[in-house]
Amino acid sequence: MLGGRARGPRARGRPLSGEPLLEVRNLTKRFPVGGGLFGGAPGVVRAVDGVSFSIARGETLGLVGESGCGKTTTGRCILQLERPTSGSVLFEGRDLTTLDETALRDVRRRIQVIFQDPYSSLNPRMTIGAIVGEPLAVHRIVPEAAARARRVRDLLSRVGLLPQHARRYPHELSGGQRQRVGIARALAMEPALVICDEPVSALDVSIQAQIINLLEDLQAEFGLTYLFIAHDLAVVRHISDRVAVMYLGRIVEITDRKALYDDPLHPYTKALLAAVPIPDPEIEAGRPRIVLGGEVPSPLNPPPGCVFHPRCPIAVDRCRRVIPDLREVKPGHWAACLLA
Amino acid sequence: MLLEVEHLSTEFATRGGVVRAVDDVSWDVKEGETVALVGESGCGKSVTALSIMRLVAAPAGRITAGRVLFKGRDLLALSEEEMRRVRGREIAMIFQEPMTSLNPVLTIGRQMTEGAEIHLGLAPPASRDRAIELLAMVGIPDPGRRLRQYPHQFSGGMRQRMMIAMALACRPALILADEPTTALDVTIQAQILELMKDLSRRFGVAMVVITHNLGVVARYADRVNVMYAGKVVERGTARKLYRNPRHPYTLGLLRSVPRLDEPRRERLAPIEGQPPDLTRLPAGCAFTPRCAWRVTRCPVDRPALAPVGDGEHLSACWEAVHVGREREAVR
């Protein structure tokens, strides 16, 4: 249904098969809150609320939205780091929500994560060589020490680091270099799917482009599939084949990159795109502003009807009552808006 | 001229040796205008602002040279007592993370009225009215009730609105805003930027906006100073600097970011190499190792900020006349 359809020849020569590598169906994650010592009345946060999408092999799906929209929780539910409240996560044909921890260990080799802040995800007491080599030993991918050292050197060189970096510690590297280590460690497991959770947003502007280019090169070389979670709409447009926009736990729009950016259908997507400042004073001077009023409502107490209606510039009375389904408004272009 | 920073240098003692975070930097702000300091982490933009306010943490950090003339007076020569009257009253500051500059155990009302009572000598009922007026002005609904609340009861966007209200409380002539919208979501960022722009126009407040975001600068600033490794490497009006960048670092930054208003490029054009290590800077231009326009003298001979074209546009680059022309990179 929401799958990446096979399309024509692709620019970097990555073939897309029609078969999805990952399919998320009706994923819901609720967190109980409150009721404790200072918690006040107990309640339920609907962090992810009925999310469905699929990613084809070799494809990049961008997942965008503002803080608290549920994009990171969606990633964690795919990995089963959070067990979903309901819904299924089909990866290489198996429903991960039904697997126990032992079975998941094997799956987690095939799904790797690259985090926003490489510093907090790298053990400060381990050398870079040990950090990259450890999973190779633990998962017995390369059990023999000398062969493992060679493999580590290969991986470091593949992500643009030097052999001597293997003897350094994380604090001796720059932010960009640390992110390269995080990428090398993920790559060591020979994953099929990589969940990139804000992988460049903590990096300096001049380094972001280096890392994005590296991610694209690795995808082409190893046939990787990416779920690219980010809030930077320009970066997401650059790297993604398809894009899903999340708001308050729901996908409000999902389609091909070009359709989303050239012809957004959901008023939230339109507002997001209009809010991004363009690095050009002459364009900015003449640009109409759709400044979205208000703030994202609490997921503890979401508004009735369409969750976006309190901020929506075009909402009508019906929007306050009816929850819009994600529907195919144009071929391959899905939006959850009654007025789209 | 409202503010003139002249040959300012600020150093920090670190384990790796003395770091000159701000290195002989000069720039200025006219009445009512918005000036941006733009650059990446460690370039010295925040330390410059802290130096102006004389808030550099001693003993590790200290201002070693220069003058900061505000309305003609050198702030660096004032007594601590005199400086306290400048902070908040004449120059206000807005930080990236408002929670670090708000007291979590005091109500918003208490924190908002304090400045007006101390600096403007307002009595409690008048200062409270003033606080309500300010909160309403920055778009906080139900300000009377909000005054009785604590900072944690406000969202990130509302806290930043409050910081703006507090900054405006004493009608300062200048506001230093250090990454004021970096911690905010894009739709909230747009709201706050519109608000700041509107208020600075309405009250004629001059602004210094410190940011790494080239889009924010473009939307916002009249003039721009680009900083790299503690130095201003390029300065100009926002329009000229963006249209015709004359320092390889500025050009590189502008080319490296993907833009929503342009067709998607097949590949991004990053600035290669690593950010500078301030403990091991070359004698010449600090950008040399990453520069495609470098020539023999660059690593040893440091270029001064010098006019390119008209007098308003300056670049600290030996090859400034070539930068931006589409000739083959030297490398």
Q: Can you describe what's shown?
A:
The complex is a heterodimer of chains A (340) and B (331). With 340 residues, chain A is an alpha/beta fold. Chain A has two domains: 20-35 and 42-110 and 192-204 and 215-335, P-loop containing nucleotide triphosphate hydrolases (Rossmann fold), CATH 3.40.50; 125-190, no CATH class. Chain A contains eleven helices and twelve strands. Chain A has helices at residues 71-78, 101-110, 118-121, 128-138, 145-158, 175-188, 205-222, 233-239, 257-262, 267-275, 281-285, and strands at residues 20-33, 43-56, 60-64, 86-91, 94-95, 111-114, 193-197, 225-230, 242-247, 250-256, 327-330, 333-335. In chain A, helix 5 packs across helix 6. The longest helix of chain A has 18 residues, at 205-222. Mean pLDDT of chain A is 90; it is low at 1-15. With 331 residues, chain B is an alpha/beta fold. Helices cover 30% and strands 22% of the residues of chain B. In chain B, the strands form two sheets. An eight-stranded mixed beta sheet of chain B has the order 6-7-8-3-9-10-12-11, sandwiched between helices. Chain B has a four-stranded antiparallel beta sheet with strand order 2-1-4-5. In chain B, helix 3 (108-120) packs across helix 4 (124-137). The radius of gyration of chain B is 21 Å and the shape is globular. Chain B starts with a strand and ends in a 16-residue tail after the last strand. The relative contact order of chain B is 0.13. Residues 327-331 of chain B have low confidence and may be disordered.
Short description:
The complex is a heterodimer of chains A (340) and B (331). Chain A has 340 residues and is of the alpha/beta class. Chain A has two domains: 20-35 and 42-110 and 192-204 and 215-335, 3-Layer(aba) Sandwich (Rossmann fold), CATH 3.40.50.300; 125-190, no CATH class.
Tell me which CATH architecture of the largest domain in chain A applies here: 3-Layer(aba) Sandwich
Q: What's the mean pLDDT score of chain B?
A: 91
Cα end-to-end separation of chain A: 19 Å
Report the average pLDDT across residues of chain A. Answer: 90
Backbone CA Rg of chain A: 21 Å
Q: Uncertain regions of chain A: pLDDT < 50 for 5+ in a row?
A: 1-15
Please compute the radius of gyration of chain B using only Cα atoms.
Answer: 21 Å
Distance between the termini of chain B: 42 Å
Give the biggest beta sheet of chain B. 8 strands, mixed
- Which protein chains make the most extensive interface, counting residues with beta carbons within 8 Å of the other chain's beta carbons? A-B, 46 and 49 residues
Question: What is the H/E string of chain B?
Answer: EEEHEEHEHHHHEHEHEEHHEE
